[in-house]
Amino acid sequence: MKRIAIYGKGGIGKSTTTSNLSAALVEQGLTVMQIGCDPKADSTRSLTEGKAIPTVLDLLRAGGGVRLEELVRRGPSGVLCVEAGGPTPGLGCAGRGIITAFEQLRRLRAYEAYRPDVVLYDVLGDVVCGGFAMPLRGEYSDQVFVVTSGEMMSLYAAGNIVQAVKRFRSRGYARLGGYILNCRNVERERELVERLAREEGGAVIAELPRSPLVQQAEALGRTVVEAFPDSEMADAYRALAHSVMERCQDG
Question: Is 121 exposed, middle or buried (0-12, 13-18, 19+ CB in 10 A)?
Fold first, then answer.
């Protein structure tokens, strides 16, 4: 089982990237579980026809215990979807949803039941502390990939994430797999991201062009890979899937 954490600044296209990566991996015949670790609980919407699925915290708040089939929902593409969820706005710690989700998945023996080939964690990376750092731990993830553009705040967040990965590496935590450039058409964008890679370590493993098909697919409640399978953008996500799995094999 390959365990992969996808981090990035909020709004950088991390969930879109992760969902299309999941869809591309399923195309390869792999069983994929995607766990949304953002309190907005919108990581898997393009895998579930645009519909929100119950979050772990919502199910627990409803009482009566949580069943595995409630926690894990299989989307039309075949991706196994989980959303950690977050606290009531203004109350509690947002990272608590991640910790609780991981505890419930372990208690219900989800990995043994579904036997995924790949587990993808979609994690908010503006801050890497508390629950948001939990997917970095060695018992959860093997590799960390960072989604970034050439925008200043995105690069800043990416640098912080990589610093956290390096700091925890000595404890047996996940290692850096590389950077995923999600283009925003910033001037000298590739150069800026490659400079970050040189300074912090790692390599740019994929470049995703800016495309209107991303928004068009999401409006349909689908990934680009499913909605526009013959497009160059879908091929870019397939190339990303190849690069990610190649890096995992090398690791």
Answer: buried
| Tokens found for residue 53 | 């699925």
Q: For the domain bounded by 2-250, which CATH number is listed?
A: 3.40.50.300
Our answer to whether residue 51 is catalytic in this structure is: no
CA dist 108 → 5, 71, 216, 220 (Å): 21, 9, 37, 33
Distance of CA 120 to the CA centre of its chain: 6
DSSP state of 55: -
The CA-based diameter of the chain, rounded to the nearest angstrom, is 54
Residue 251 has a pLDDT of 60
Distance (Å, rounded) from C-alpha 244 to C-alpha 208? Answer: 13
Active site residue 166: no
Regions of the chain with pLDDT less than 70: 87-94, 126-131, 138, 251
Tell me what pLDDT residue 223 has.
98
Report the candidate in 38, 45, 47, 31 with the shortest Cα–Cα distance to residue 12.
38
At residue 131, the pLDDT reads 67
Catalytic member of 40, 58, 142, 235: 40
**Amino acid at the residue 155:** L
pLDDT of residue 93: 67
**Catalytic-labelled residue, pool 58, 117, 126, 235:** 126
Measured CA to CA, the distance from residue 38 to residue 40 in angstroms comes to: 5
Structure confidence at residue 207 (pLDDT): 97
Tokens 């009531």 found at: 88
Q: Which of 2, 9, 38, 122 is catalytic?
A: 9
